[in-house]
């Protein structure tokens, strides 16, 4: 589901999630690499970084 941008909806980034779905469908799945890269960035990000916050600016819990 990450390739479809479901994580963006969960984090409150609805516009980015919709764009990611469209890109993945239009590129016949190749755009799913975007979701893989974002998932890795979220998992390895340091607390306080851009990738460790939701759309409202709240810190993600480990």
Throw out a few tags for this protein.
62 residues, mainly alpha, 52% helix, 0% strand
End-to-end Cα distance, whole Å, is 21 Å
Mean pLDDT, as a whole number?
Answer: 90
How does the major sheet shape up? none
Looking at the structure, what is the overall shape?
globular
Low-confidence stretches: none
Quick one: how many beta strands?
0
The secondary-structure element order is HHH
The computed structural class is mainly alpha
Task: Tell me the helix content.
Answer: 40-55%
Note the beta-strand portion: under 5%
Total of DSSP H or I helical runs spanning 4+ residues? 3
What value does the Rg take, in angstroms? 12 Å
Task: Walk me through the topology.
Blueprint: H1 6-11, H2 14-26, H3 32-44
Describe the 3D structure.
- It is found in: Membrane.
- InterPro entries: TM2.
- Pfam families: TM2.
- This protein has 62 residues and is mostly helical.
- It has a domain of 43 residues.
- It has three helices and no strands.
- The radius of gyration is 12 Å and the shape is globular.
- It starts with 5 loop residues before the first helix and ends in an 18-residue tail after the last helix.
- The model has no long low-confidence stretch (mean pLDDT 90).
Short description:
Residues 2-40 form the TM2 domain. The chain has helices spanning 6-11, 14-26, 32-44.
